[in-house]
C-alpha cells in the first residue's frame, strides 16, 4: 500500500473513532487499526450496505467456529440425552445466535458504537499501549486487555472479533437452554412458547459482538450454576463471579453476595466450613465495595453521596443528546420499573431497530401480566411455585441490577443494552409460573415431565 493511500485511510480511521482517546503516538500502518479502517473505507467508497472483509483468516475463523459448535452441540446433546427435536432446536439456536454477529457488525459500522473502540484498543487510554499488560485493569481496560492479542498481535479484523464474542456468549445461552429442558412443560404449544423465548433478539444482538455484554452474560450464567449445584460447580462459580467483577464490579458484588447468602442457607454444609468461607467472602466483598466506591469517587457509602453520583451520571448521559432520553429523575417507583422492563413500547418508536425492541418489550409485558394473573391460583390453593432456584436467582439478580440502573440510566437505548443479559431469566420466570398453572390444570395427579442432566 502506498503512503498517500495509507495516510488517507488513517484519516478515515480517525474520523470513525472520533470519540476515542487521542494519543500523540504516530500511527502504525501495520497494526489492526489500519486493517479495520481499510475495510471501512472500502465499504464507504463503494456505497455497499454490507461488504465483509475479504481476509482468508476471517473466513477461516467463521467457518471453523460455526462448524465446531455444530459438532459440539451434537456431542453434548447426546451426552445429556437430548431428544432429536431438542437437539435440532439447539442447532437452530446456534445458527440464529451466530447470525447476529453479522447483524451486530453491520449495525455498528452503520451507526458507530463502543465496540469499534474496544477492538481498536482506543476506548480507554493507557500509559503503555505497546505492551499487553499495559491494558490490564477492570471494566473497559479488561475488555481491551482481552482484545489485545486477537486484535493487535494477530491482526484480526472487527468481524472476526464479533464472531469470537458470539461463540463465547453462546456458551451461556446454551447452558440456560439445558437447564430449562429439565422442567419442560407438558403441553406442546407451551413448548413452542419456551423455545420462542430463547429466540427473542435483544440478548442475541448485544451478546453476539465485541463488548462487555457477552462477557457479563457468561459470567452471570457461570455464577448461577451455583444455584444448580454449588458442590459440583464451585470452581466455575468462582470464575463467573470474578469475570463479572472484572468487567462490571457491581455485577460481581451482587452475585457474590447472593451466592454467600445461598451458601449459608445450605443445611448440609458444616458450620466450621461456613465460618471459614464466610470470612473469606466478607473480605472479598469489602474489597469489591471499596473498588466500586473508588469508581464512583465516593469517600463513604451514604445516601447523600449516592444521590450526588446518580445526578452526575444522569447529567453525563444527558450531554450526549440521544433521542431516546427519558426524564428518569422525575419518575416515581412504578414509572421507573415500567421504563426499565417494558420500554420502549409500540407507539413511541420509529425504525426497524427500535421496532424490534418494542415488540420484545410487548412480549415481556404480556408475560408479566400472565404471571400476575396466575399468582392467586398458587397462593389461594397453597401450591408450591414451580420455579427452580437458578431462575429465582436470575430474577433477583435482575431486580437488584434494575434498582441500580433506575438511578444511573436515563436513555432507553442504553437500558436495552444493559438489561439484555438478565431479561432472559425474567421471561423464563414468568413463563414458568404460567406453564406451572397449565400443567396443574391438565394433570393434577400426574408427575411433571422432567429430564435428568
From TrEMBL:
Keyword set includes Cell cycle: no
Q: Does the keyword Membrane apply?
A: yes
Protein name, entry field:
Uncharacterized protein
Lineage per the UniProt record: Bacteria, Pseudomonadati, Bacteroidota, Cytophagia, Cytophagales
Q: What residue ranges are annotated as transmembrane?
A: 52-71, 92-109, 163-180, 192-224, 236-263, 275-293, 362-379, 391-409, 421-440
User: Keyword annotations for this protein?
Assistant: Membrane, Transmembrane, Transmembrane helix
Amino acid at each position: 500500500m502506498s503512503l498517500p493511500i495509507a495516510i488517507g485511510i488513517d484519516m478515515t480511521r480517525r474520523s470513525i473513532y472520533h470519540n476515542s482517546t487521542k494519543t500523540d503516538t504516530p500511527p502504525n500502518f501495520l497494526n489492526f487499526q489500519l486493517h479495520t479502517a481499510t475495510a471501512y473505507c472500502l465499504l464507504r467508497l463503494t456505497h455497499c450496505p454490507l461488504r465483509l472483509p475479504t481476509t482468508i483468516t476471517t473466513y477461516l475463523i467463521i467457518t471453523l467456529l460455526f462448524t465446531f459448535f455444530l459438532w459440539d452441540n451434537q456431542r453434548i446433546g447426546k451426552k445429556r440425552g437430548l431428544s432429536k427435536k431438542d437437539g435440532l432446536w439447539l442447532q437452530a439456536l446456534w445458527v440464529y445466535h451466530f447470525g447476529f454477529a453479522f447483524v451486530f457488525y453491520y449495525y455498528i459500522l452503520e451507526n458507530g458504537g463502543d465496540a469499534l473502540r474496544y477492538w481498536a484498543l482506543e476506548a480507554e487510554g493507557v500509559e503503555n499501549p505497546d505492551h499487553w499488560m499495559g491494558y490490564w485493569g477492570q471494566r473497559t481496560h479488561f475488555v481491551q486487555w482481552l482484545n489485545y492479542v486477537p486484535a493487535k498481535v494477530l491482526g484480526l479484523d472487527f468481524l472476526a472479533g464479533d464472531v469470537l464474542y458470539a461463540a463465547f456468549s453462546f456458551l451461556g445461552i446454551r447452558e440456560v437452554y439445558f437447564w430449562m429442558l429439565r422442567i419442560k412443560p407438558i403441553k406442546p404449544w407451551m413448548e413452542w412458547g419456551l423455545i420462542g423465548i430463547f429466540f427473542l433478539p435483544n440478548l442475541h444482538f448485544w451478546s453476539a459482538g465485541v463488548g462487555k455484554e457477552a462477557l457479563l452474560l457468561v459470567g452471570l450464567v457461570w455464577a448461577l450454576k451455583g444455584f444448580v449445584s454449588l458442590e459440583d460447580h464451585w470452581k466455575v462459580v468462582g470464575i463467573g463471579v470474578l469475570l463479572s467483577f472484572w468487567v462490571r464490579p457491581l455485577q460481581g458484588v451482587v452475585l457474590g453476595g447472593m451466592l454467600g447468602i445461598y451458601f449459608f442457607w445450605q443445611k448440609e454444609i458444616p458450620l466450621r466450613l461456613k465460618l471459614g468461607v464466610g470470612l473469606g467472602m466478607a473480605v472479598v466483598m469489602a474489597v469489591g465495595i471499596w473498588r466500586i466506591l473508588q469508581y464512583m469517587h465516593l469517600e463513604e457509602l451514604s445516601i447523600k453521596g449516592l444521590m450526588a453520583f446518580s445526578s452526575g451520571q444522569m447529567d453525563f448521559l444527558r450531554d450526549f443528546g440521544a433521542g431516546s432520553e427519558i426524564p428518569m429523575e422525575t419518575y416515581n417507583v412504578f414509572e421507573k420499573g415500567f421504563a426499565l422492563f417494558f420500554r420502549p413500547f409500540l407507539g413511541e418508536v420509529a425504525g426497524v431497530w427500535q421496532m424490534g425492541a418494542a415488540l420484545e418489550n410487548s412480549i415481556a409485558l404480556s408475560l408479566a401480566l400472565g404471571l400476575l394473573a396466575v399468582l392467586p391460583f398458587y397462593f389461594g390453593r397453597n401450591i408450591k411455585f414451580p420455579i427452580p432456584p437458578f431462575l429465582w436467582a436470575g430474577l433477583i439478580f435482575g431486580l437488584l441490577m434494575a434498582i441500580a440502573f433506575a438511578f444511573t440510566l436515563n436513555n432507553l437505548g442504553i437500558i436495552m443494552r444493559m438489561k439484555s443479559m438478565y431479561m432472559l431469566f425474567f421471561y423464563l420466570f414468568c413463563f414458568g409460573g404460567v406453564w406451572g398453572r397449565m400443567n396443574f390444570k391438565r394433570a393434577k395427579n400426574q408427575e411433571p415431565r422432567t429430564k435428568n442432566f
